[in-house]
């Protein structure tokens, strides 16, 4: 997107007055599918603006609702400052958290980052599921995966290496045939990859990209965390993560299943 297009996105809608005086730059914060801008101004707090096309599978409204709930539950995450839509684009303005994401927080050792991720997931997974209004159990997630497949928005070129070359239809058939017989339900982040957790030298700062947060099997988070750790730091740090989390032995079939499910999101 050109700089002039960026300016149009930033200036449009009810958020315009709140952004006056800020300079902005594109940012790769987390793994959000939205366009993300880091906003800075002398004497003002750093903010992030997320912009997505208004479409049936948009996630910014979901993210705003989950951030508000997570904050009310006592866990650290960005503050929702404002949100709006002009019918063409949805926008979400949030506060910045101190530090960097766990994939790039080079002031901390990889081992320290893996431990922080484990503790962050433990804190989230200890929240009572009865307090969480967001239902992401398999019945709902499989329905969402099917809807995304039928809408043609599953990116088959972005499948994990082991699944490249397969069709979304073939993978969905696997999801149905291999569905686990039980779910160990907790409040999950939903996209528990290292870039979606922020930390500084002082410790964990908070959760970001929370649009998929909801009640689901804990393997929803464990599977994606293990994959992210192996990708960023190597397989050797997967076991220390699992040990710190308190799951020294895992079910390989469930790990693979939830990594397969993630191909649709």
Automatic annotation (TrEMBL):
InterPro entries: AGP_Transferase, Aminoglycoside_PTrfase, Kan/Strep_kinase, Kinase-like_dom_sf. The keyword Cell membrane does not apply. It comes from the Bacteria. The keyword Kinase applies. It is an enzyme of class 2 (transferase). Residues 30-256 form the Aminoglycoside phosphotransferase domain. Pfam families: APH. Its EC number is 2.7.1.95. Keywords: Antibiotic resistance, ATP-binding, Kinase, Nucleotide-binding, Transferase. It catalyses: kanamycin A + ATP = kanamycin 3'-phosphate + ADP + H(+). Belongs to the aminoglycoside phosphotransferase family. This is Aminoglycoside 3'-phosphotransferase. The lineage of its organism: Bacteria, Pseudomonadati, Pseudomonadota, Alphaproteobacteria, Hyphomicrobiales.
């Amino acid at each position: 997107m050109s700089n002039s297009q960026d300016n149009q996105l930033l200036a449009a809608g009810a958020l315009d007055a709140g952004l006056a005086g800020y300079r902005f730059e594109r940012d790769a914060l987390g793994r959000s599918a939205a366009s993300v801008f880091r906003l800075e101004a002398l004497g003002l707090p750093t903010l992030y603006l997320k912009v997505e096309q208004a479409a049936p599978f948009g996630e910014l409204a979901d993210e705003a609702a989950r951030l508000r709930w997570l904050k009310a539950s006592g866990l650290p995450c960005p503050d929702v400052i404002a949100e709006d839509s002009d019918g063409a684009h949805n926008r979400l303005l949030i506060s910045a958290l101190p530090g960097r994401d766990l994939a790039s927080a080079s002031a901390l050792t990889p081992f320290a980052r893996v431990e922080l991720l484990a503790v962050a997931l433990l804190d989230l997974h200890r929240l009572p599921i009865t307090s969480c209004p967001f239902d992401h159990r398999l019945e709902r997630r499989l329905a969402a995966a099917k809807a995304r497949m039928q809408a043609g928005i599953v990116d088959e070129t972005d499948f994990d290496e082991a699944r490249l070359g397969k069709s979304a239809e073939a993978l969905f058939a696997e999801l149905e045939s291999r569905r686990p017989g039980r779910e160990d339900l907790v409040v999950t982040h939903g996209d528990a990859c290292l870039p979606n957790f922020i930390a500084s030298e002082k410790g964990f700062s908070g959760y970001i990209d929370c649009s998929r947060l909801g009640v689901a099997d804990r393997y929803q988070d464990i599977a994606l965390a293990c994959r992210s750790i192996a990708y960023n730091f190597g397989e050797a740090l997967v076991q220390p993560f699992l040990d710190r989390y308190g799951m020294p032995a895992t079910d390989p079939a469930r790990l693979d299943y939830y990594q397969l499910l993630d191909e649709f999101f």
